[in-house]
Amino acid sequence: MAIENQYEYVKAKNLDEVVGLLQRFKNAVILSGGTDLVELLKTGAVHPDVVIDIKGLDFLKDIRLGNNILWIGAGVTFSELIDSEIINEHFPIIAEMSKTVASVGIRNRATMVGNICSAVPCMDSGPVLSVYKARIITDGQIGERQIPIEQWFVGNRKTALFKNEIVKGISIPVPDKKHSGCFVKLRRYSGEDLAQVNLAILAFDDYSFRITFGAVAPTPVRAMRIERLINRMKLVPELMEKAQQLVEDDIAPITDIRATKEYRLHMAKVMLERGLNAALDRLNGGGPAYGKSVI
Amino acid sequence: MKKEIGFLLNGERRTIEVSPSEILLEVLRDRLGLNSPKCGCDRGDCGTCSVMINGKTVRSCLVLAIEVEDQEVVTLEGIMQNGLTPLQESFLKHNSFQCGFCAPGVILSTTELLAKNPHPNKEEIQEAIAGNLCRCTGYSPIIDAVVDLVK
Amino acid sequence: MDDYKFIGKSSVRVDGKVKISGSAQFIDDLDFGPNLLFAEIVESKFAHAIINSIDTSEAEKIPGVVKIVTGKDFPFRFGLYMHDRYIFAQDRVRFVGEQVAAVIARDAVTAKAAAKLVKVDYTELTPVLSVEQALGDSPFLIHPDLKDYHHVPWFFPQTNSNVAHLRKVRNGNVEEAFADSDFVLDDVYTVPRYAHCALEVHGAVGLLDHSGRLTVWTASQSPHTQRHLFAEALAPLGFQHKDVRVITSFVGGGFGGKAGVSMEILGAALATKVKGNPVKILWSRAQEFYNTYQRQGVVARLKVGVKNDGTITALEHTLYWDAGAYVEYGANVVNAAGLSATGPYRIPNIKIDSFCVYTNLPPGGPYRGFGYSEFLFGLESHINELAKKIKMDPVELRKKNAIREGDRLTYGAKMNPNGLMEAIDKVAKEIEWGKKETSSDPNKVIGKGFSLFWKAPAMPPNASSSAFLKFNEDASLNILVSGMEIGQGYLTVLAQIAAEVLSVPVEKIRVETPDTDRNPYEWQTVASHVTWGCGNAVKQAAEDAREQIFDLIERANGKKREELYLDDECVRSKVEKDFSLPLKNFIISGIQKEDGTFRGGPVIGRGMFMPEFASALSDPETSQGGHPNVHYTVGAAAVKIEIDKQTGKVKIPKVVLAVDCGKALNPDLVNGQITGGILQGIATVLYEDMRFDDKGKLINANFSDYKIPTAMDIPDEVVPIIIEVAQPDGPYGARGMGEHTMIPAAPIIANAVEDALGIRIKSMPITAEKIALAVKNRGKD
After folding, report:
1. Tens digit of pLDDT for each residue in A254-295?
2. How is domain C462-609 classified at the architecture level of CATH?
3. How many CB atoms lie within 10 A of CB C235?
4. How many other C-beta atoms are found inside a 10 Å radius of the C-beta of residue A143?
5. What's the CATH number of domain C297-402+419-459+628-777, 3.30.565.10, 3.40.190.150, 3.30.365.10, 3.40.50.10730?
6. How close does chain C come to B25, measured CA to CA in Å?
């Protein structure tokens, strides 16, 4: 299906050009992988004046680790994350999550930044970036902004990005404590499928946790009540059960085509238990290999 | 609005004038006469439109033609310049495909896999073609052909 | 034993190379030149509404728009088994997405943009979205003129109702039998609608040239039936069959969805409005979901009586089919299921009512399995529940009642030879029936499920096949048939049949997809009948050619024909060991006599097959008499599953399916049908279903939410078992088996879930969600 609306296309040569175009055109969109955008162009859901392709900006392709900060450029695809030694060594949960995104042909093109800019509730990147306390680095006429992940998502398909801004990349501080984690994705199929519920967990060696659910609300939900309950506690079965009960306080999923509210709640509890156990086992050098689903 | 772009298509330098709204899949099929990429869903869900850009499979239904300027595009037609590949011969021997509509995409996905990982295990093969839907075969004759080839 | 050279061998597919090289041309790959026009339809927004007016004026103003067509242009009713549909909606629309008008333009983008500008003024009516609603008190009639509709003689519409057809089968006395039974079990099973999901969408290109010749290129399982329906539906425009030509290239998956005529009529009809220009209409994936045939949903009330010794005494099966807005094809699914709703069991007392119910949902129609998958889900679930009640092993119960050769079928005829018992025993052994297994993971339980299956081709009694076979100079040959290669490997099997008769290797035989002008008649490629029907025709054509060859050798060389045989592409003699005449020496050019003259000429074989014993005439109240089904293919299947009790997820370590195909002409292709069919079946029970909103709109018309299994969602092991009890009238004993491989999938899974968890789920699909919540809520009520 061809795209009905006409627009200009610019393959940007530098960031200034992008910022200038974003300023000049009322309706400009950034194109990187295009796996979401092209579909939106086809259906007419998005009808821009200009499409700014940023794939020519080499500096956006960086996966870089320095000063205990990981940098993932806006042009980095999920396949590149999966193949990155830095990611596998220092951020295996990002690799674990990336492997669950769609399928190879999409991951070769789709970027993590694109994923959080589309910001559909079932996205897989959101919960992981949430537990890592990522910051989204934007640029535009008003200059660079660093937006904490918890302020990034503002609604279904809505982010804190201003209309004339671009996301340059994501910065993630390396946690200062020994840690492990787990990404759990509930989906109907083992192959390419969207999340019914997803969950990211970081477990630290002081037995504190960061836990974020996705696809259970318009934006990722940090499970603060659960974290407060279990932080620095021994996760005995009674405590696990209490934590599971708190799921219903922390999240309020809906029924849609992919799952009922009841199943989502039920599974969020199952995923919490299995994810926590896997994360703790991994912390101690055991547990399932990263990438092996616990559900 | 239209722009002339040059790119490497199946090893040959091609130039074509495209408008920014044209989809790579449609340009390949309707204007350049390459029919191996198919349109199965037109939204990236099925994998029948797979082509390679710079050695990696992509959904050509989700790529603007104008994006491939100065890139290297390979369709199934482009991997057969020395005849059928050993992978294709294995698919032939195993009667791997039935209706054949998904075949070009599956072959490109497995070609990409083998370039990266010449001895994949069964799970890796399954993972590599998980984005290529096939309704006919139950996938096992496809997987068997790859397993047989790399063993 | 057989001493075949080509039959029973796993030849490489004759269409293998063309497919793996990407050279196979499908409908959208054909080139029609710069004059090609594109059509886009205007769709109904409502499931049920009166069309007050259609305003095309805005759309007509768009540059590039060539023609706009509405229902007024084609006020003709048509259909396959019942004339109940129109090319475009007339005074009312009956489902969301129904075609109301079409815009033909120079390019697809313009057609699409202009179609949005066509304004249709509707008066919305209450939609009838379920069989309960359709059959309720004073329901809204979806087809008020039903009584006037032309239909085949074996349909029985119920006037002043939404029942388009009611198939009743009666034998014995069920009431008495239930009273005499030790146990009677009564329950209701429901099955939703499903989509075929061939990877290729439907498409058609029509061209009416200035000489009055209508050519339609389609992606179709049924080129001749399409030609017939095009000629019939457009008859008021003066077409004879000879003026209509259907050309079908490779088809990217059928599964029943490309049988009959669905959207292809638009290609034919629109062409008549833009003479001299080819016009193309191609469905989007969404349209593929909501405006082609869907597998019908069914609500099945089932009551079965059994004696303590396991003898099934009586069956009462009432099937309410949600057949959708038009039933011209779907009503025959209802009919076929009604005739066979006992399953492969010997049951003396039966009462079956199979209701074809109009609803304001998309038209139902043929789908691999043709109604049998749907009723078998309930029936085979029920058999297990009965076994439990009388404390009998469910496989034993099945064996005790399984139908055997010569047993009475529901309509009175006798069951054909079959290997059902052998299938049951082999499957039970392979799945280690009776061996309980436990998982090392405390969250997981293992269960096994078993089911029998059967299916007969559902076709008119006079459905026929024919074949031409022509030799080339080098004794290679071309076979002309009109059956369709839809992936099943049919072209290969036909080549093997001809190869066997004529001693010409498969590699020297070309079989191509049809063109109704050149290829002889075939009814349709459906019903798992073409290997049998068209296979017979090809065998006859090959034998016809062989006899011509022997005639010639007798005439030209003075050999006795009864001493001749074909071997290695030569004519040889049983008595003269030295005589060996290569076919290529004479097959076109003839045999030269001493005086320089020639005898012979191009050898062309002709074959035809029609099952002359079949009849669809029977007593409408009981279905007794007649012989509507030509034969049944039977088999058994079993599965071992592992269920995660918390997530409800089902893993399949092993699935086994044995099918009696009479003779596996190509075992590899039979196995291919099994691995493919079983996964398609498993998908219907574990994952898929069509979801409609409360206005009748399909809400998962895409592969994101009506998703089919990926390569990571397959059983760990599929064990195909081929049983060969010859079909006496089949080519080399073969009978069809393509559809059968998906039919038992739902009940084996349902029974395995019950075996593992003790939970009987009576509505499909049995998703992880349904299982997990059933486990969670167990004991709550």
Report:
1. 999 999 999 999 999 999 999 999 999 999 999 999 999 999
2. 2-Layer Sandwich (3.30)
3. 13
4. 9
5. 3.30.365.10
6. 12
